């Protein structure tokens, strides 16, 4: 299997090269040169996720040096449960796919752990430098996944005063090979610095820079696997129609992963991409035209994206993106959904997952009742306690993993939003290591 750029024009690369490079040269994103199709009779519900994932992902690793390690990589990455929960009671057609039982309490843990497990086998003698800009959950998951590894150090840039207190804590609490860097600027400034660093051939080569944002296919492959796994599980619960899926979407990595799983033969029915007030995807769905917009700030901040970077991949799927709807929820609807579902059923959504629950509510009655619907519950509500607690009128308990983060010491560095400052910091990190 080879991988090609969404924008064409560059020679195909192996999976290992695609993971190491992150983005394709020329700014495109890597896609498999063909979509592998599985005989669905080879897959069934009830298998442990790590084994299922290795089998589901095997075609992508075909012919790559990482192929021999695929089982081990999956065993390392998939170590926590992914329950499918009847959040609103067994009579409702809604199931929450809880993706937040990993060490940093969001689905980003899957991608980060899988990618770093791949880097362990790709790095060779000298460590890679994983450079990431973050406004939410990615930085914490990457820092956690990188901690203590010899194959990689992580440098994570985040915007000053724009992340929540818990988010800042989980960016700044990892070991020596993880540097949390507070940038005196906004998220766009952080992202611009990362892009400038990758575009500087000397800097990029001397630090062996690589990306852990969702442009990197290695972040998305484990998501393809758990989406397919959940589809078989949900299909087994209700043997009539294939389950529908509702995905809270920002950069569209998650949505793309689900559509790829469906294109590969997973029993996924209709798909709803659920967004916050950032309306780029809704406009695309209604008009057929894709027009990026500036992002607007919402309660679901990990989805505050006006130009989803993985849109190119969804577009490249062609027919694979058929039967996709978009549903948009404003902050008011997020608040209402969290409060009302807690009152009626005792279940607590995070602000992102609440948008998926709201999208399910808005389905027409027959569409809602004719099949099971799987809503991706993307983060643990405790991570957004300052939003959720006043709505439900009680304190939230952290998971044990999140409680452990709250007890760790933190450290950060500060820089101005200039490439020269980042270059100096990278050099200093190397000397320290
Ligand atoms: C990253 C994130 C999303 C959005 O996922 P995309 O793959 O960027 O669409 C939604 N919810 C949470 C909690 C996230 O961390």
Task: Please describe the topology of this protein.
Elements: E1 3-5, H1 15-21, E2 30-32, H2 49-61, H3 70-77, E3 84-85, E4 94-98, H4 108-122, E5 128-133, H5 137-146, E6 152-159, H6 165-172, E7 178-183, H7 187-199, H8 201-206, E8 209-211, H9 217-237, E9 244-248, H10 253-263, E10 271-275, H11 280-287, H12 311-316, E11 324-328, H13 331-345, H14 351-361, H15 365-369, E12 373-377, H16 385-392, H17 400-406, E13 413-415, H18 419-432
Parallel strand pairs: 4-12, 5-6, 5-8, 6-7, 7-13, 9-10, 9-12, 10-11
Antiparallel strand pairs: 1-2, 3-4
Helix pairs in contact: 2-3, 2-9, 3-4, 4-5, 4-9, 5-6, 9-10, 13-14, 13-16
The protein binds pyridoxal-5'-phosphate.
